[in-house]
Design a protein that fits this description.
The protein is α/β, with parallel strands linked by helices and 377 residues long. It is built from 16 helices and 13 strands.
């Protein structure tokens, strides 16, 4: 079974992390061969190539320059003619709108992978909704609830992302702390996310301002700006930390390729989203690393975190968040107990072998239905 995944690749976030994981796990599935097509070169395309899977470039594509859309569709048409793919998966509305019609014209089963909730309005969603897929896959139950706004009543399967985490030696974690000027006894709170306002950085800082009386903690903010607006936002956060009087205890570490090391060197993961997270790969990564996870009680995070492994706090409430963090900072046994539950929860939700097997069964059933329908017709 040969599957082609299409994703633009101009940004790097949760969707790209998932697709790279899928590429890295490709050799573990004898029944499903995954290939990937992208539009923009960068970290995403480089990691795909390094994973030694079939990778195709569709060329830079901008909807504001429709001739580039036509060129990319033509390249995809040639790829579909040369390679006998059994199904094509378009990730997110942009890719579905741009490339879905070409997939349908080629007579291939078309899958739309929904990575975020639909709004039900906007030119991109209206464009995407004109091409009805044969199947939709959603990354969470929260996300799936909005799918009818795009395509009405359509076959849909919820599949959580496969999430793995490399093993990290304790000595590496201690070394990272030392390089960042912290002792092994400092309680490290970490947030790893894109530099976007809805990820809750500001709320996080306001909560930390309530903990200035509490000794021996430090916060790492991990994530680099990928756009000018994100750079401006990060600079605002640094100014806010200074105004709140916590700049000396908050370190902005920027974009990191050693996130597993950072998590292993931390004690608490905190990302207090102010808007719903569609899923939240980093929550699962933190659970797998043995960290208690603190987030807000909205979106995909509420499907991932239970009271056994972490805490869900009300969105937009810095005092409630501060009280939760104070408790965890002051209670190492509570942190350890929650952390010990994390890996099992991560495995139950996102074990790579189990989730890829689920994807394989889902796509195989779609392909079988497609073949059966063509034979009957």
């Amino acid at each position: 079974m040969k599957i082609l995944h299409i994703n633009a690749g101009n940004m790097y976030g949760g969707v790209e992390t998932f697709l790279v994981t899928l590429a890295q796990q490709a050799g573990d599935s004898a029944e499903m061969q995954s290939s990937f097509a992208f539009c923009f070169r960068g970290r995403f395309s480089e990691e795909l190539v390094a994973s030694d899977v079939p990778v195709y470039s569709l060329g830079g594509t901008w909807t504001s320059r429709f001739w580039t859309v036509c060129q990319a569709r033509r390249r995809l048409r040639h790829i579909l003619r040369r390679s006998n793919f059994d199904a094509v998966v378009c990730h997110m509305p942009w890719n579905h709108a741009v490339f879905g019609p070409e997939v349908k014209a080629a007579g291939k089963p078309l899958v739309f992978w929904q990575h975020g909730p639909a709004c039900g309005h906007g030119w991109l969603e209206r464009w995407a909704s004109r091409t009805r897929p044969d199947l939709a896959i959603s990354n969470s139950r929260f996300t799936a609830r909005s799918l009818p706004l795009l395509f009405g009543d359509i076959p849909n399967q919820v599949i959580y992302y496969p999430v793995g985490l490399p093993m990290v030696r304790v000595t590496d974690a201690l070394s990272l702390r030392q390089r960042l000027g912290l002792s092994k006894d400092t309680v490290v709170i970490v947030q790893v996310s894109r530099m976007e306002e809805w990820k809750g950085h500001s709320l996080h800082l306001r909560a930390l301002a309530h903990l200035k009386d509490l000794p021996n903690w430090n916060c790492w903010i991990v994530g680099g700006a990928q756009r000018q607006a994100e750079l401006e936002y990060m600079n605002c956060l640094k100014r806010q930390a200074a105004q709140l009087g916590v700049a000396d205890r908050v370190q902005f570490l920027g974009q990191r390729t050693d996130v597993s090391d950072v998590l292993a060197a931390s004690d608490i993961f905190c990302q207090p989203n102010e808007a719903p997270e569609p899923f939240g790969i980093v929550f699962v990564e933190a659970l797998r690393a043995g960290l208690p996870v603190v987030t807000t009680d909205i979106g995909g995070g509420a499907e991932i975190v239970t009271e056994r492994e972490g805490r869900l706090v009300p969105s937009g409430d810095p005092q409630a968040l501060a009280a939760c963090l104070r408790q965890l900072i002051s209670a190492p046994e509570l942190r350890r107990g929650m952390g010990q539950c994390g890996p099992n929860r991560a495995t139950d939700l996102c074990d790579p072998a189990a989730r890829i097997s689920q994807l394989q069964r889902t796509l195989a059933a779609l392909i079988f239905r497609s073949i059966s329908a063509s034979v009957i017709s």
